[in-house]
Amino acid sequence: MNESFFILGQQVAILFIMIFVGFICAKRGLFSEEGIKSVTNFVLYIIIPCVIINSFHREFDHEMMQGLIKAFFAALFVHLLNIVVANLLIHDKDEARERVLKFATIFSNCGYMALPLQEALLGKDGIFLGAVFIAVFNIINWTYGLFLMGGKGTKISIKTALLNPGVIGVFFGFIFFLTPLKLPQILLTPLQCFASMNTPLPTIIIGFYLAKVPGFAVLKDAKLCLALVLRLVVLPVAAALILYACGLRGDLLASMVIAASAPCAANTAMFAGKFDRDTSLSVTLVSVSTLFSILTMPVIVQFCM
Predict the structure, then answer these.
(1) Predicted structure pTM score
(2) Segments forming the whole domain that contains residue 203
(3) How many domains does the chain have?
(4) 150 in a domain, yes or no?
(5) Distance CA 202, CA 225 (A)
(6) Are 115 and 259 in contact (CB under 8 A)?
(7) Residue 305 falls within a domain, yes or no?
(8) In principle, which of 169, 234, 245, 252 could form an S-S bond with 49, CB 3.0–4.6 Å?
(9) How far apart are alpha carbons 82 and 105 in whole angstroms?
């Protein structure tokens, strides 16, 4: 237990140092808002699919296939749990605020924040299992999440839910995992090079947004604090206990809990802007939850390892 806690603490410290570099870059003006948005899009559309495909680029294994199936249902359960709890506990007189608070409570940053930690602690298997969580996240995010932020009359596109980087990455990854087909080295090497950028670029993005934290005065907002406590502590702990009771153990449990305990999804700010919701609140939730997650994630994940 002590050894695993030391390893976890060491990996989080490494990530924190890299996040701090992004923080300094933001403070020194080395990145602009537009520049960091471009880097974010690059990570979303290029890096994450490469990471997922690379993790699936292996020989078929029955045990790992069973793990993937369990990961799918575990990820689905986590999101359904989050949806139920958010709708029961999150309420606000201002509809725009309420929708942002619920969205931030339900959806975690299972890509930018979770993948680097899954890779650092669990290796390729961690990403292999975490990729399923990302696929489920994307499907629910672009259906229920779209409806939640948009309100009544919002058109939900199944095409959009399925044709996004996370799901596409899993789709192509499954082809390589389930069949003898493998990429030639001339294509695999660039893909692996892009995949290796998974940790530095997302941590720089996170550091940039941490530099935008407006100050701890925002913690006077009781509804915001409730959303943060639910996202960072209550929901991941509840998910961990229930998944453990259902028989999940080892890398599978750890991978799911890392994803479940991540801070508010970056999409919170993106969707808030798209549907003219409370963008200031959304950015605050993403940045402040990311800051506190550096403390909460190691403690929660430690009990699953």
Answers:
(1) 0.86
(2) 2-209+219-299
(3) 1
(4) yes
(5) 25
(6) no
(7) no
(8) 169
(9) 7
